[in-house]
Amino acid sequence: MSDASIDHLLDELVAPFEPWPGGWDDVLGRAHRTRRRYALIAATVAALLLVPTAVALRGRIAELFQGTPAPPAVASSFEANNRVADLATQNGFYSGFPHAEVSQAHGVLEVETGDGHEDLWVAPSDRGGQCYFVDFANDPPVRGRQYGFGGCYPTPRGLVLGVASQVWVAGPPQEWPGSSTAPAHEPLIDWGAVWVAPHPALRTLWGHVSVPADSVEVLLSDGSLSRLPVVEGFFLASLSRDVTVREIRAYDASGTEVATASPLGAHRG
Amino acid sequence: MVAQLEELYRTRRPDFCRVAAAITGDRGLGEDAVQDAFAKAVRKRRTFKGHGSLEAWIWQIVINAARDARLRSPAIVHSREPAAARAYTGPNGHEPSLPLELLTERQREVLFLHYYADLDYATIAAALGISPGTVGATLSTARRTLRRALTQGVKQ
Q1: Of B10, B42, B98, which has the smallest distance from its Cβ to A13's Cβ?
Q2: Does pLDDT of A264 surpass 70?
Q3: Could you report the predicted ipTM of this complex, rounded to two decimals?
Q4: What pLDDT sits at residue B90?
Q5: Nearest CA of chain B to the CA of A10: how many Å?
Q6: To probe the interface with B, which of A8, A17, A68 has the most B CB atoms within 10 Å?
Q7: Please, what sign has the CA dihedral across residues A90, A91, A95, A99?
Q8: Which chain A residues are within 8 Å of B88, Cβ to Cβ?
Q9: CA distance B64 to B52
């Protein structure tokens, strides 16, 4: 029995397939159906949690995003932040900037915005905390790095590092990350709201809760109240640029309030 | 990235389907696994790290989808015989059949990827997470096993 005979039997085992002209549309349909299923689940959960509904704020949509390994462009951005930290140290600004363990960078939160998905990635830091990076999924990489911004917790108060990006604060000064109005100690809820240049209609609300928390409630200037999940200590949402944050309250899994933050700072509730 | 996936799908879909059908033991399940695999690739395209070829990454997803489909299929789960072997068995019982049940899962997958998709050793290695040297040795062992079994069958 020769190899040719085996090949003949393999041919008979599975006959060749024909091309399917409409197959790619079916692929895209399957991909979108899955996304819509996640969005529907998120919308159902949100409907149970929001009182009243906050149309200005969009929340998390993709459970499966958590744990996704960071793509190369995002990993490069973490590495770039590490180099900025080195540069700051070399120039005498501060000697204790954390560095991200880039190989462990992974997805934590993904939200739907008017400009597609916005993602928050996290990597453990070499000082026992966490470093993060926020980007819009559809923004093309620039010189191999993803457009976005990031920082580390714990860190010198409110340090935000922009990488290959144009990140601007928008709104009242007290919303700026690293605001001088914040207390000197590490706040229980550290947050910011920024405008990323390619997305003029949106602002990104992101933050970190340094005590065990399951969710945060965000009160906006239009009177709406939204609850966002806290994952690995972080929360993320996309805001319309015409609203501001009035207050953020963090809750543990039992629903007990564990911290609050206003534009003037943060304190335990 | 989506355009590259579409190009790969349009040019190679028959090969993906053939391998997936061989793994699942069913043409319909194989086709469905390929569709699901590409849908997953579209959704997860940002996780492609670029360390290997895009094609090898897709093959990984297709193979995993086909394995999952085989395990989810009750008719196949309850069979003691490998799916692909049952799929081949001739209707009259006298035709020489390919004794795939004598091969390990890895040997079968290497054989299918090499024969049906005409992949080189490096791509097969990347798709299955093994070394190119192991691909060659596995393929050689698989064919030797089949030759020996078929020769003995003919003599009987």
Answers
A1: B98
A2: no
A3: 0.80
A4: 36
A5: 8
A6: A17
A7: negative
A8: 9, 12-13
A9: 17
Mean pLDDT, chain A, whole residue set: 75
Query: What is the distance in angstroms between the Cα of B32 and the nearest Cα belonging to chain A?
Result: 10
**Which of A13, A27, A68 shows the shortest C-beta gap to B47?**
A68
Tokens of A163: 């990488």
Kindly list the residues from chain A whose CB atom is less than 8 angstroms away from the CB atom of residue B40. 31
Written as six digits, the tokens of A131 are: 């470093």
Q: What CATH number does the domain containing B65 carry?
A: 1.20.140.160
* Sequential DSSP letters for B83-141: HHHHHH--TTS-S----GGGS-HHHHHHHHHHHHS---HHHHHHHHTS-HHHHHHHHHH
Range of the domain at B63: 2-155
Domain count, chain B: 1
Say if residue A174's pLDDT is above 50: no
Is the model more confident about A140 or about A229? A229
Residue A128 has pLDDT above 90, yes or no: no
Closest-CA residue of B relative to A19 is B14
Q: Which residues of A touch B99 (CB under 8 A)?
A: none
pLDDT digits (tens, 9 = 90+) for A177-195: 433 333 444 568 888 888 7
State pTM to two decimals: 0.48
